[in-house]
Amino acid sequence: MSISDPYEEIARYYDAENADLLEDLAAYALLAERFGGPVLDVGCGTGRVALHLADQKVAVTGIESSAAMLDQARAKPDIGRVTLIEGSAADTLAGEGFGLAVLAFSTFQHFHTQDEQLGVLANIARHLRPGGGIVTDLSNPVHFFRTDDIPALVHERTFTDPASGQPVMQQSIVRADRAAQILHITWVYDRVEVGGGVTRTVCEMPLRCYTAPEMRLLLERAGFSPVEFYGTYDFDPFDEHSPRLFVVAEKAS
Hints:
Layout: H1 11-17, H2 25-35, E1 39-42, H3 48-55, E2 60-64, H4 67-74, E3 82-86, E4 98-103, H5 114-127, E5 128-139, H6 141-146, E6 150-160, E7 167-177, E8 182-192, E9 198-208, H7 212-221, E10 224-230, E11 244-251
């Protein structure tokens, strides 16, 4: 497995730490109705979104570069309803004629350079039929520019490790490089073992933050227009106070 895979050591925790991340799922189902299927789930991870759409009788293909995350997905009993492909979002081919491509919860923020960003969007466009849609869920960049650097561990949550049944404390250290628009997050997972010892796992996770005009330019260069901006999963208008930057665009005919 590639040493560059940030999820290699923490994939086992992903579903447990994100067990409450449900509020975006209905939005993807509505967009699948709007644009039609099948759906391409780019950066599908452990299958969180893909399995929800499969429950709605939508045909889903997931692309994921992390073998560790795919291992977690393939262990799920219902994953046979989803086609899973290991590969890069920039060059993996999964066929054509998709109605919707989904880049859920900050997936696109893993791509830091313009070449990477345009490569991913161009590859997605190749998969979509004319009039097909793309949805990208991003953190609100206004919050990023207001973020305070905290040079100390901050407790995020405590959850149960599904493999061992032991408690895991998830903590973070955050540093913002505002000039490069990169949020450097160090995730620290402390698993309390039966004998009282602690197993610590540290993961570096740099995430690129995007403004709405920047996303419009990238999407239009990749052949998507019009571009719509929302601030919530209920499709409320985007503004500086919005919790998310939820972007929907259409592949030009």
